[in-house]
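User: Let's play a game. I give you a shape written as tokens, and you guess the letters that built it. Ready? Here's round one.
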């Protein structure tokens, strides 16, 4: 039975049992606590937690999933995968244990027709109810294993949360293996023979902070059956890789790399790794994950590099993974149309990433071989770090190499060098931010931030720092720390406030504010006058700059929400900068926005601005904020209490930045640019408030200048421009014709010279079109001249044209151009019969001519 049929039978079976069939959710969950969708229940986590009421009480899905916790086992074992499909049926306060167990048994034995004697059951040792249900079905007691909590109890995702006992169904492959206790083989006393094909979790408890199990108000069913495992069972193979889900991909890999599968165990492992990883790559990129050095993008890059390295082990010396994409699309595109739609883009991303990695891999492998050879089989920490830092060589791959070849890898040493680099990076970042992040860690007080509520407050100096901490300063650039401050420190993509702090004996101009450690806010600036520890003053934030920054920050939230609504929920923030003059927003997306999409985003944001909606902020627990739908960044760190910024039901994000009180304060939102940052990441820059007004004024002034220059009104401007373009084209044509006629080819032929039996012409011109020179050189060559070299002076530069008779093989126009352009202080080259170059030193034309003669004499 093929995988397509298994998938369809499962969903049809549960549809007949009253389940709503839903499509697979994205691999990127709407849950900042999870990097990927790791199980079928992930899309329904808010329902399991009781945060959201279900629309449907019975649901069945085939969910695409990603797990990388056991990535080193992929390909080496029969059933470890990074990407897999999970069949699941779910009940939210509807049916419970009896129906879940009976339907699972019915599907396996009556729909899939698996012999009952091939099946075993395990239950939680204290779950008498589940045990009795299995006995009533007719399962012999000796084939129902009562196991402990570590085997048959599904714990909460964290210290607290929904949980409950589970029961598992095992398939006996019949493989001959030794038992741990010498008794009849069963799932508890053997390894490898019995395959868990279905897990039924009975979510009936809530575990509190003390570990107590409290009954849930609504009991739920969460089941998971791995499609790959069931396919292996139905197709009579031991390895999931030998099913129809993988064999077409494996065959494509074998064809590309010209090797046979199932011939060599080591090669088979590499082929299986590639087959598994390419599926993960196709689905991850299609869902909006792109290669990077952090978060999900790092995991994607790690998977791709492992696949590329295994390709290298199989003899691949150039990118090949992108050529395997079509095999995945052909096999799974009917079920998951998103991979069909994005297949060309996926190939482009994979090819570019693989090409860059292979270049570094080749260099890295040479270094590894040298290091191992010189050290007698050891990769020391310094060398491992150099490979990572210089060549992008991941530690994972070094681990693989060490395991495969018996090398000793100094991972502890590597981590030491890595930590040193992180410290340097932190310090360097401090210098860039006009600050130094040192010595504040030892302070045992904190600065209270009151800048959400006021822009002016009384302050007291607690610390003064120049090169070191001092008691007093006078007329100097320094850093001050206060007991309280209205100044927002730079963080979360938002620049810091600026302003002034007035003291009795001086004024302190605040240029930058930052957080060297959590809780201590440092003000960097210039003091005019005298200040000592203990002095009191009045801190005033530059109100205009703060308000302008707030406009752009709130607009960034609206932009993020608008992009997700118009482009899709795969859009995620990849970086941002919020300052008074503009906002910059980086986001995950796989292609350039069209003009229409940009206009739609602008229109939607401005619609929310014009509706003048109050911007609400609320402090709540992290779990509460996420359960209510607040957007959070996976890469961000959040405490127990978070600040939620909400604009009606349009935008809701976790954010500590400063915002307007009402969207109407933002003014006109205008996108001024959209472009690429890296593969799969786009950037939008936009403006608001007075900056937008000034931008429009500038456009208006330019429009008036254009009208004045053209002596036209608003209606006639474009007609006059079109007429000017037509006139210019006509004049250019006439000018080129004039230039050609101005040069007398017959007279030029009189200046032909002979050297080494080569007829050549050298001539200087000034201000001619390059196209004209090319045409003249063609005509001269047609007259029997072997070589033409033209020097064309254009202001303070020289353009060089070299044309050679096509059948004169002993000369190469590109080499001649390259040689002469060096004399002229420039560069260039070209084909054997034609080349173009240039230089900056017009005075060296005579030297270049002499060089040409020398060149010809050597021919």
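Assistant: Ready! My guess for every position:
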């Amino acid at each position: 039975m093929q995988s397509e049929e298994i998938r369809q039978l499962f969903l049809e079976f549960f549809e007949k049992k009253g389940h709503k069939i839903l499509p697979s959710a994205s691999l990127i969950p709407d849950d900042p606590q999870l990097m990927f969708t790791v199980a079928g229940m992930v899309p329904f986590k808010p329902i399991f937690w009781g945060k959201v009421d279900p629309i449907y009480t019975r649901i069945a899905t085939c969910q695409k999933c990603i797990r990388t916790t056991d990535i080193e086992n992929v390909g080496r074992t029969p059933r470890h995968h990074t990407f897999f499909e999970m069949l699941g049926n779910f009940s939210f306060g509807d049916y419970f244990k009896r129906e879940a167990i009976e339907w699972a048994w019915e599907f396996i034995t009556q729909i899939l027709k698996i012999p009952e004697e091939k099946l075993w059951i395990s239950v939680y040792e204290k779950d008498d109810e589940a045990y009795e249900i299995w006995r009533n079905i007719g399962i012999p007691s000796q084939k129902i294993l009562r196991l402990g909590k570590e085997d048959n109890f599904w714990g909460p995702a964290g210290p607290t949360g929904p949980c409950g006992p589970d029961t598992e169904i095992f398939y006996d492959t019949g493989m001959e293996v030794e038992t741990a206790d010498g008794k009849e083989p069963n799932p508890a006393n053997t390894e490898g023979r019995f395959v868990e094909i279905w897990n039924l979790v009975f979510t009936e408890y809530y575990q509190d902070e003390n570990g107590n199990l409290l009954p849930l108000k609504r009991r739920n069913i969460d089941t998971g059956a791995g499609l790959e495992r069931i396919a292996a069972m139905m197709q009579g193979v031991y390895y999931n890789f030998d099913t129809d889900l993988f064999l077409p991909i494996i065959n494509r890999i074998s064809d590309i790399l010209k090797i046979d599968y199932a011939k060599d165990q080591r090669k088979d492992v590499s082929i299986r790794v590639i087959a598994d990883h390419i599926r993960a790559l196709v689905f991850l990129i299609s869902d909006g994950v792109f290669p990077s050095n952090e978060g999900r993008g790092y995991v994607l890059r790690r998977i791709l590099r492992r696949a590329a390295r295994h390709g290298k082990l199989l003899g691949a010396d150039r990118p090949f993974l992108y050529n395997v994409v079509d095999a995945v699309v052909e096999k799974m595109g009917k079920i998951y149309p998103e991979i069909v739609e994005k297949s060309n883009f996926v190939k482009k991303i994979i090819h570019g990433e693989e090409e860059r990695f292979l270049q570094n891999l080749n260099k890295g492998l040479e270094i590894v071989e040298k290091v191992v050879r010189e050290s007698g089989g050891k990769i020391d920490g310094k060398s491992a770090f150099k490979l990572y830092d210089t060549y992008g060589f991941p530690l994972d791959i070094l681990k693989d190499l060490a395991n495969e070849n018996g090398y000793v890898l100094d991972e502890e040493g590597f981590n030491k060098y890595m930590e040193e680099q992180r410290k340097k990076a932190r310090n360097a970042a401090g210098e860039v931010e006009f600050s130094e992040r040192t010595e504040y860690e030892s302070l045992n007080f904190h600065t209270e931030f009151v800048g959400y509520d006021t822009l002016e407050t009384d302050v007291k100096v607690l610390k003064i720092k120049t090169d070191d901490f001092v008691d007093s300063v006078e007329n100097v650039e320094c850093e001050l720390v206060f007991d309280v401050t209205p100044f927002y420190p730079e963080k979360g993509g938002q620049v810091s406030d600026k302003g002034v702090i007035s003291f009795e004996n001086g004024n302190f101009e605040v240029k930058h504010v930052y957080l060297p450690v959590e809780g201590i806010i440092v003000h960097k600036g210039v003091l005019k006058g005298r200040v000592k520890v203990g002095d009191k003053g009045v801190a005033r934030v530059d109100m205009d700059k703060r308000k302008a920054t707030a406009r752009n920050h709130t607009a960034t939230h609206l932009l993020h929400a608008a992009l997700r609504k118009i482009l899709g929920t795969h859009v995620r923030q990849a970086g941002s900068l919020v300052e008074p003059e503009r906002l910059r927003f980086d986001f995950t997306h796989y292609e350039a926005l069209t003009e229409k999409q940009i206009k739609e985003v602008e229109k939607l944001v401005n619609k929310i601005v014009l509706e003048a909606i109050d911007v609400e902020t609320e402090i709540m627990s992290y779990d509460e904020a996420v359960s209510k739908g607040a957007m959070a960044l996976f890469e961000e760190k959040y405490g127990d209490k978070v600040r939620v910024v909400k604009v009606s039901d349009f935008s809701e994000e976790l954010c500590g930045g400063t915002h307007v009180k009402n969207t109407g304060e933002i003014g006109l939102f205008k996108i001024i640019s959209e472009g690429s940052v890296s593969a799969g990441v786009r950037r939008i820059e936009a403006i608001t408030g007075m900056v937008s007004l000034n931008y429009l004024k500038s456009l208006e002034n330019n429009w008036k200048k254009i009208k004045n220059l053209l002596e036209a009104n608003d209606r006639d401007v474009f007609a006059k421009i079109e007429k000017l373009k037509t006139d210019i084209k006509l004049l250019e044509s006439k000018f080129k014709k004039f230039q050609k006629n101005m040069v007398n080819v017959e007279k030029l032929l009189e200046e032909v010279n002979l050297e080494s039996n080569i007829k050549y012409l050298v001539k200087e011109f000034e201000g001619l079109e390059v196209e004209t020179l090319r045409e003249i050189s063609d005509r001269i060559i047609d007259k029997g001249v072997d070589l033409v070299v033209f020097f064309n002076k254009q202001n303070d530069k020289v353009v060089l044209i070299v044309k050679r008779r096509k059948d004169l093989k002993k000369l190469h126009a590109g080499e001649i151009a390259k040689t002469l352009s060096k004399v002229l202080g420039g560069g260039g080259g070209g084909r054997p019969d034609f080349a173009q170059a240039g230089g900056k030193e017009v005075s060296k034309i005579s030297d270049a001519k002499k060089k040409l003669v020398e060149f010809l004499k050597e021919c």
